[in-house]
Amino acid sequence: MNSKSSAIASTSPALLSRAGLVFGFLGVLAFSFTLPFTRIAVEQLDPLFIGAGRAAVAAVLAIAVLALTRQRLPRGAQWMRLAVVAAGVVAGFPLLTSFALQTVPAAHGAVVIGLLPAATAIAAVIRATERPSIAFWIASGAGVLAVIAFIAVAGGGLDGLHPSDLLLLGAVVLAAIGYAEGALLSRELGSWQTICWALVVALPVMVPLTTVSVANHGWPQADAPHWLAFGYLALVSMFLGFFAWYRGLAIGPIAQVSQIQLVQPVLTIVWSALIVGERLDLLVWLGALVVVACAATAVRARVASAGLR
Predict the structure, then answer these.
(1) What is the pTM of this model?
(2) Measured distance CA(293)–CA(295) in Å, rounded
(3) 18 to each of 25, 156, 179, 241, 280, how far by Cα in Å?
């Protein structure tokens, strides 16, 4: 057991649980702006440039941070596991959601992204051998249904099946795998170190993809609001948000902390209303209360761990 795992193990379970949830919520809060800002960015920026370019910018920041703090290099199989994280959260999720949000609104995207907590819990069961209780699965399932019902009523997200849903579903699967593997690596490398190294691993792919976008469409000509949206995606969604998120998942249990994501679609709708001007009525607030209640029940349900593989 390394020093990071020892430090976590020496803290009381109650304090660990609360800390994991706090860090997890901070990560979710940061990510809740991702879809609205992506929706804004794709109005004037190529989705390939957004998905790859934001990762390239974040990777430059990651290299600087790693160099300044003189972090040790990952070892052996950790590089392959970092590639899994990079494929899921650095490349897969940003690219797929950027292309999907060209044709569907952020509210519709949030319907599918609302499945991410359950997908992350399943990934944790498979990869981290966690064993959530029946109450946990009931609360999580209710939360997924509440998320879908809420956005269907509030945002019209279920008015029809969009081809982009396949892209969003792929984004959910890749993100769940990246979250679970990244959480395990965070116990070995540290939370912010994990996302930094994953960004470095992805850089040789993200730079050529960004170059392809510029070659095909020229250097993006966008207004300040669209560049600011891109800046948020690069600095917060792709970088700083993961500092808190992976810290929360590393403290865990992964399946339990991941359920905080159930409030993310609610927050996404709220930010979309404030930023884009969508109307919020009583149904929005009622739906938000139901989703938050399901999330609270899920995070309080017992999750056992059978040890790490």
Answers:
(1) 0.82
(2) 5
(3) 11, 35, 19, 18, 31
